[in-house]
Specification:
Helix content: 40-55%
CATH class of the largest domain: Alpha Beta
Structural class: alpha/beta
Number of helices: 23
Low-confidence stretches: none
CATH architecture of the largest domain: 3-Layer(aba) Sandwich
Number of strands: 9
Largest sheet: 5 strands, parallel
Strand order of the largest sheet: 2-3-4-1-5
Strand content: 5-15%
């Protein structure tokens, strides 16, 4: 079957029209929908009732999977993708989502129940109250206010009786209640309070092992779980059992092709597949991973070459610039070599929006490089939402050539007084500074903060470097690398 120029234009237009910010919330306006559901095999643990802690950096899908669990329709669709998990036998309620409204519990409700100077016992009782609230919701009753439930939770005998009664009801109906906690980085704006709230929640999660039919599930950032200042005797066991959300290259391309297959350009995309002797699939087959393009790298490479050409340059030596399939994966990784779907889709959207359109392909090598710039800017902007100090720390490094000796990087920060300014900014605007402890407040501690979140890394020869994903938007230079924005 022949692919026409109009087919190419339709595919490019569809890709360019996708929203660049593909973030999700557990509920509300940005909750995931059925057309958003794509279920990589490696992500089954995110929904597995037996998996208690799911780790993931921003953009890997923590809130997305929280939203899928909390929506009965999406949960039913996910049950077909992951038939062994028994998702048809679970009930789900939210314990904390960082969002207001009747469904969620946010920081404002938390602060009402746990005073600013409240200790561990007060925090622990609050988390028990969120368990009781979820149980009341699962029973079909309108829950009492969290403040009232805090008083109930403080009575150990009454609390355990309520838990045991509900657990027996669930067991009698062969069901399990999953209580989901998401956006836990929003619980506090100071390091001591965040640690205290995180630690007490983990203690409650550990204690919940006594009720098999009621299971908490936490979606956490790795840096929050790995905080060395957490002090809880069973913490190593929880860390060992935690599952990390990651995306392989085939998962990312499977997601991209699934979105195209279910877009308004489904017909021209189908003709492109037919020209390559690749079959189309129904949305149900795609969601259930019953599609060759969900897992077969060889087929994915053929399709990407048809969309963008085989190499990142033209001419007899084009292969030296890399191929169009590997290049995005290589340049979108953070310091942990992890690529998020948010960054990957942003690159593809940016490539489709590049001004100079090819006539024989949907996107071009120059478009892909432009897409990296768009993805880098979006990633740093989103990182700024999570770590408001990040732009102030990166700004003085603009124009620096990487990789660079540690002393040169640190001297740039010293001249700009970056350490003191970042501390003052955090105190003024009420967010977590880069320094978990006062003794960390120096240039070495600043680098450690960036290393901890995957923004910088140390090369084997000791020099400091930064992945292209952040370097391009931060306007640092690199020989042979994509030029900054």
């Amino acid at each position: 079957m022949t692919v026409t120029t109009n087919d190419i234009i339709e595919l490019r237009s569809a890709l360019a029209s996708w929203p660049a910010d593909v973030s999700s919330d557990a509920h509300g306006v940005q909750a995931p929908g059925l057309d958003d559901l794509y279920a990589p095999g490696a992500h089954s643990a995110a929904l597995d009732p037996a998996a208690t802690i799911i780790q993931g950096t921003r953009g890997t899908g923590k809130s997305f999977w929280t939203g899928v669990l909390g929506n009965a329709t999406l949960r039913a669709a996910a049950a077909k993708a992951y038939p062994r998990l028994g998702l048809d036998r679970i009930e789900v309620q939210f314990g904390y989502t960082g969002l207001p409204g009747p469904e969620g519990v946010d920081k404002e409700k938390l602060d009402e129940c746990v005073s600013e100077n409240g200790g561990e016992q007060e925090a622990r009782i609050f988390w028990w109250a969120t368990i009781l609230r979820a149980m009341e919701l699962s029973s079909g009753r309108k829950p009492q206010s969290l403040k009232k439930l805090v008083a109930v939770a403080a009575d150990i005998e009454q609390r355990e009786t309520l838990l045991s009664v509900r657990a027996r009801e669930l067991q009698a109906s062969d069901s399990t209640l999953i209580i989901v906690y998401d956006a836990l980085d929003t619980v506090a704006s100071s390091w001591p309070r965040r640690r205290m709230l995180t630690q007490t929640l983990l203690e409650v999660v550990w204690a919940m092992r006594a009720w098999r039919a009621v299971r908490p599930k936490l979606f956490l950032r790795p840096d929050q779980l790995e905080d060395e200042a957490l002090r809880f005797v069973e913490l190593p066991k929880l860390r060992t059992g935690a599952v990390r959300l990651t995306w392989s290259g085939t998962d990312l391309y499977g997601l991209l092709f699934a979105r195209l297959a279910m877009s308004e350009a489904a017909e021209p995309f189908g003709r492109l597949l037919a020209s390559l002797n690749l079959r189309t699939a129904t949305p149900e087959q795609i969601r259930a991973r019953q599609w060759v393009l969900a897992h077969d790298e060889k087929s994915q490479r053929r399709l990407m070459a048809a969309l963008a050409g085989p190499y990142m340059a033209a001419g007899p030596h084009a292969h030296k610039k890399g191929n169009t399939y590997d290049w995005p994966l290589t340049h979108l990784g953070d310091a942990f070599d992890e690529v998020t779907p948010r960054s990957f889709l942003s690159l593809a959207i940016g490539a489709a929006n590049f001004e100079e359109h090819p006539t024989d392909f949907v996107i071009s090598p120059d478009g892909i490089r432009h897409g990296l710039r768009a993805a880098s800017k979006m990633r740093v902007d989103q990182l700024h939402q999570e770590f408001p100090w990040i732009k102030g720390v990166l700004a003085p490094l603009a124009g620096l050539l990487l990789p660079q000796e540690e002393d040169e990087v640190f001297e740039v920060w010293r001249r700009a007084q970056t350490v003191s300014l970042s501390i003052k900014s955090a105190q003024r605007d009420g967010y977590l500074s880069p320094f978990p402890k006062k003794t960390d407040a120096d240039e070495q501690g600043l680098y450690a903060a960036l290393e901890r979140i995957g923004v910088m890394f140390r090369r084997p020869d000791g020099r400091l470097d930064m992945p292209d994903l952040f370097r391009v938007a931060a306007k640092l230079l690199k020989k042979g690398g994509t030029a900054p924005l």
